[in-house]
Write a structure and sequence with these properties.
Largest interface: A-B, 55 and 45 residues
Strand content of chain A: 15-25%
Radius of gyration of chain B: 19 Å
Number of strands of chain B: 0
Number of helices of chain A: 12
CATH superfamily of one domain in chain A: FAD/NAD(P)-binding domain
Oligomer: heterodimer
Shape of chain B: elongated
Order of helices and strands of chain B: HHHHHHH
CATH topology of one domain in chain A: FAD/NAD(P)-binding domain
Distance between the termini of chain B: 70 Å
Order of helices and strands of chain A: EHEHEHEEHHHHEHEEEEHEEEHEEEHEEH
CATH class of one domain in chain A: Alpha Beta
Number of helices of chain B: 7
C-alpha cells in the first residue's frame, strides 16, 4: 500500500465523489474517477488487512498447525444447515464465530478474516447462502477469477425469447470498456471466436492437460467448446502496475477460498485502489459502515452519506457532489431502502418500486466426475499450477429452442492431480491396495459443474426486516427469493447434458450429482437496481445513474438487467468504467 | 554380532525410548488408545515399497492434537467409544484385545469394521486427511509437483 500517499478523510470538505465499497465495482469507480482528476473519498466497511500475511499462499499444509483449517471455536455453515434451518443461520449455533459455507472448504484459516462473521451480520427471510466479505477489496480477495464477457445473446435476450427486458446497452457499447479492463488488469485465455462468448484481449493462456485436450476434441464433434479457464489473472505481467506480479503457476489457487499473495490474480486493492492512491486524488477510509445516503431537502439530490465507524461505533457524515454505490448487489439495495426521507418515503431512487426486486443470480449444483482410464498409473504431472482448469460455454438456446427452458448454462471444470487427493475419501477399502489405487488414480479424474441463468423476476426480492438489526444497529435484509420452474428444469438438463458429454468422450462416470445447491451458493447475486430506459420499470439509466437522483450511481451487480450464465465480475468492471467516464465528462460540463 | 545389527538394535531401542516418552505427552488419548489408533491408521495406509505409511507420517499424533482442542464432546466420545468397540470386536473374533492380536487378526478386525462400523469411516477419513497433508504424504507418496515457481504452465499449448 502506498503509505506516503495515505490521506486522512476530511469530513469538513465536499468531495467530488464518495464511493461506497472497495470491491470490483467500488475499486473501479475509484480508479476511473481519480484518473479524471476528481477528488474521491472511498469508504469501506471492513478493515485493511495485511493481506500477504493472511494468505501465505505458499505455506505447505503441514506447516500449519491445523493443516489450513480454522480454530475449533469457528464454525462454517453446511449445506444441510442452509436447507433445514431458516436465517439468521448463526442464531443458536454454539461457536464463537460462524461463517458462510465457503469457510468449509480447505485452507479456511487463510480467509477467515476476509469473510464476515454471520453472528455480526444476520439476515432473515427465505433460505439463502449469502457470502459476504468485509475487508478492503471485498470479495475480490477470494474470487474464483473466471472472467467472461457477455454478448448480445445476453443483452438482447428478451428480444430473442420474449422473456423479461433487454439491457439498455448492446455489446458494441460495452466492448471498448471490456478491452480497457482486459488491458488494465490482465486476463488469461484462448481465442475461440464465439459470438456468444466474445474473446478478450488475452495474455498467455494456461494449458490443458491430456484429459482436457481429449474432452475438448470429443466436444468439438458435438459442436461444443472446451476452452482453457479464462482467468482474471495476469500471466504476462503488467508494466503499468508495480503492486502485482505475473502468475508463476504455483498452485495455491487450488486453495478455495484462496486469494493470491503475489496479486497475479486480480484483486481490487492492488489492481485498482493503490494505483488510484498514486494519483494523489484518492482518500481511503476503512472501518466505515455506510448506513444512509443523505439527500438535499431542496434539490432532492444526494449530498453525501452517513456512516458508522465499524470499530468505535461513532457516527459521521461525509459530503460529496456525487455518490457512487458499489457495496455489492444486496448491500447497495439495502442502503437505498434504508435511505428513506420525506422526499423518498419508499427509499432512495425507488419511485419505480423496483429497488430490491428483479433479484437474480446463477443456479448451481449439478456436477459430474469421471475417470479417464488412459491416465491411471501415469507419472505425476503438475495440474493445479494454474488458476483453474477449463470452461465449457453455453450451448442451449443458441440456434435451437429447448422445449423445457429458456436461457442457458456453462460448465466450469478441472482435472488432473491436486495437492490433496480428494478422491481418497471415495476410494473403497483400506491397506496397500487402497493406497496404491489412490496413488495410481490421482491424475486421472476430471470433473465439472454448471452455472445457469436464474431468470430476473419481480417476485424475487429483498426488503428491510422491520425488527432485526445487525451489530451496529442497522436494520438487516429480509429475503423473498426462490428458484422457479425454469431453473429447476434447466438444472435437470445440466446433469443430463454432463452425462451425455462424458459418455460421448468415453469417460467412466464415477459421480453424477443432480442436487441443486441452496439459493445464493454461486455468490453471483445481481439485478436489485436494474438499468433501463423506462423509469417506471427500472432504477438506473444505461450509465448506472438513478433515474430519480442524477448524482447517485449504483455501479455494482445491482444494475444488471439479467444474470446471463457468464460470471459477472468482468462485466461489472467494464460497465462501471463506462459509467464513470460518462459521469466525469458530464460533471466537467456542469451537467450533473 | 555384526556391527550393522548392533546399530539396528540401538536404533530400535532409541525409537522405543522415544515412543514411551511420546506416550506421556498425548493430549487426548491414553497411551493404550493412542497405540490402537496408531495401529488402525497404519493398517489403513501402511508403509509399502513406494513410501512410508500413516505411522511414519505421525497421523495419530495429529488427530490427538485436534481432538484435544475439539469443543464438541460428542466427537470426542465417538473416538473413545469406537476404540473400545475395536477391542471388543477383536476379543470376539481373535480371543484377545486388538493390540495383542496377530497382524492377520488385526486386519480381520478392520475388515469387519469396514463393513459395519461407523467408526471405521471416522478413522479412515482422519487418516486420509492427516496422511495426505503430511510431508510424507505430499512429497514421497503423491510426488506432488506444485507449490513452486514456474516460468511456463504445464500441459498442451493449443494451436491459435
Amino acid at each position: 500500500m502506498p503509505q506516503s500517499d495515505m490521506k486522512t478523510a476530511d469530513l469538513s470538505i465536499t468531495y467530488d465523489a464518495i464511493v461506497v465499497g472497495s470491491g470490483a465495482a467500488g475499486g473501479m469507480a475509484a480508479h476511473v474517477l481519480t484518473t479524471h482528476g476528481m477528488q474521491v473519498l472511498l469508504l469501506e466497511a471492513g478493515k485493511k488487512l495485511p493481506i500477504e500475511k493472511e494468505l501465505k499462499s505458499m505455506e505447505w499444509p503441514y506447516e500449519h498447525p491445523r493443516r489450513g483449517a480454522m480454530p475449533p471455536d469457528s464454525h462454517a455453515l453446511r449445506y444441510n444447515e442452509y436447507n433445514i434451518r431458516q436465517p439468521p443461520y448463526a442464531k443458536g449455533v454454539n461457536a464463537k464465530h460462524v461463517y458462510s459455507y465457503v469457510q468449509s472448504w480447505g485452507s479456511s484459516d487463510y480467509s477467515k478474516n476476509i469473510v464476515v462473521d454471520e453472528k455480526d451480520h444476520p439476515y432473515t427471510g427465505t433460505q439463502y447462502a449469502w457470502v459476504r466479505a468485509r475487508a478492503l477489496g471485498g470479495k475480490t480477495n477470494i474470487w474464483g477469477r473466471l472472467a467472461l464477457r457477455l454478448s448480445d445473446y445476453d443483452f438482447k435476450a428478451a428480444s430473442h425469447d420474449g422473456y423479461g427486458e433487454d439491457w439498455p446497452i448492446s455489446y458494441a457499447d460495452i466492448e471498448p470498456y471490456y478491452d480497457l479492463v482486459d488491458r488494465y488488469l490482465g486476463i488469461s485465455g484462448h481465442k475461440e471466436n464465439l459470438p456468444y462468448l466474445p474473446d478478450s484481449i488475452f495474455q498467455r493462456s494456461t494449458r490443458l492437460n491430456a484429459s482436457e485436450v481429449m474432452l475438448r476434441e470429443k466436444l468439438a464433434r458435438m459442436d461444443r467448446v472446451l476452452t482453457p479457464y479464462r482467468a482474471g489473472v495476469t500471466t504476462d505481467g503488467l508494466k503499468h502496475n508495480k503492486y502485482r506480479s505475473r502468475c508463476y503457476g504455483r498452485g495455491a489457487c487450488g486453495r478455495r477460498a484462496g486469494g493470491c499473495d503475489i496479486h497475479a490474480a486480480f484483486d481490487s486493492p492492488t489492481g485498482l485502489i493503490y494505483p488510484a492512491m498514486d494519483t494523489g486524488n484518492l482518500t481511503l477510509r476503512t472501518n466505515s459502515t455506510v448506513r444512509e445516503v443523505l439527500v438535499d431537502k431542496d434539490t432532492g439530490k444526494a449530498r453525501g452519506v452517513a456512516f458508522t465507524d465499524t470499530e468505535t461505533g461513532k457516527s459521521y457524515e461525509a459530503k460529496a457532489k456525487l455518490v457512487v454505490l458499489g457495496a455489492s448487489t444486496l448491500e447497495s439495495a439495502r442502503l437505498l431502502l434504508l435511505s428513506k426521507s420525506r422526499q423518498y418515503p419508499n427509499g432512495l431512487a425507488n419511485s419505480s418500486g423496483h429497488v430490491g426486486h428483479n433479484f437474480c443470480e446463477h443456479i448451481m449444483g449439478p456436477s459430474i466426475t469421471g475417470l479417464v482410464k488412459d491416465q491411471v498409473g501415469r507419472p505425476r504431472t503438475l495440474d493445479d499450477g494454474r488458476p483453474d482448469g477449463f470452461y465449457v460455454p453455453r450451448f442451449r438456446n443458441l440456434k435451437e429452442k429447448n422445449p423445457n427452458f429458456i436461457r442457458a448454462y456453462g460448465f466450469e471444470g478441472d482435472s488432473g492431480a491436486h495437492i490433496f487427493p480428494g478422491h481418497a475419501n471415495d476410494t473403497p477399502g483400506f491397506g496397500a491396495g487402497f493406497k496404491k489405487t489412490v496413488r495410481d488414480q490421482a491424475g486421472a479424474f476430471i470433473s465439472m459443474g454448471a452455472f445457469g441463468e436464474v431468470l430476473s423476476r419481480y417476485e424475487n426480492y429483498v426488503d428491510i426486516d422491520p425488527l432485526v438489526k445487525d451489530r451496529w444497529g442497522i436494520p438487516v435484509l429480509r429475503f423473498h427469493y426462490k428458484f422457479g420452474d425454469n431453473e429447476h428444469k434447466m438444472a435437470a438438463d445440466m446433469a443430463d447434458s454432463a452425462r451425455e458429454m462424458f459418455e460421448q468422450a468415453g469417460i467412466e462416470i464415477v459421480k453424477l450429482d443432480r442436487t441443486v445447491l441452496t439459493e445464493g451458493w454461486s455468490i453471483h447475486e445481481l439485478g436489485t437496481s436494474r438499468m433501463g430506459t423506462d423509469p417506471k420499470k427500472s432504477v438506473l439509466n444505461q450509465f448506472q445513474q438513478a433515474h430519480d437522483v442524477p448524482n447517485l450511481m449504483v455501479v455494482d451487480g445491482s444494475s444488471h438487467v439479467s444474470a446471463s450464465c457468464q460470471n459477472p465480475t468482468w462485466t461489472i468492471m467494464a460497465l462501471c468504467w463506462r459509467s464513470c467516464d460518462h459521469i466525469a465528462d458530464a460533471m466537467k460540463k456542469g451537467e450533473v | 554380532m555384526e556391527r550393522r545389527e548392533l546399530l539396528k538394535i540401538a536404533a530400535v531401542a532409541a525409537t522405543a525410548g522415544r515412543l514411551v516418552e511420546a506416550q506421556g505427552q498425548h493430549k487426548f488419548f491414553s497411551a493404550e488408545e493412542f497405540a490402537a489408533v496408531d495401529e488402525l491408521m497404519e493398517i489403513i495406509i501402511p508403509t509399502d515399497d513406494h513410501s512410508p505409511g500413516a505411522r511414519a507420517a505421525q497421523c495419530a499424533a495429529y488427530v490427538d492434537e485436534r481432538l484435544a482442542e475439539e469443543p464438541d464432546a460428542k466427537v470426542k466420545d465417538s473416538w473413545r467409544a469406537g476404540i473400545k468397540r475395536v477391542d471388543e470386536l477383536s476379543k470376539s473374533m481373535n480371543g484377545e484385545p486388538f493390540m495383542a492380536a496377530t497382524p492377520a487378526g488385526q486386519t480381520a478386525v478392520v475388515e469387519r469394521m469396514s463393513t459395519q462400523e461407523k467408526f471405521f469411516g471416522l478413522v479412515k477419513e482422519a487418516t486420509i486427511h492427516a496422511y495426505y497433508t503430511s510431508k510424507i504424504g505430499i512429497h514421497q507418496e503423491m510426488e506432488y509437483k506444485g507449490n513452486v515457481l514456474l516460468n511456463q504452465f504445464v500441459g498442451t499449448e493449443l494451436p491459435s
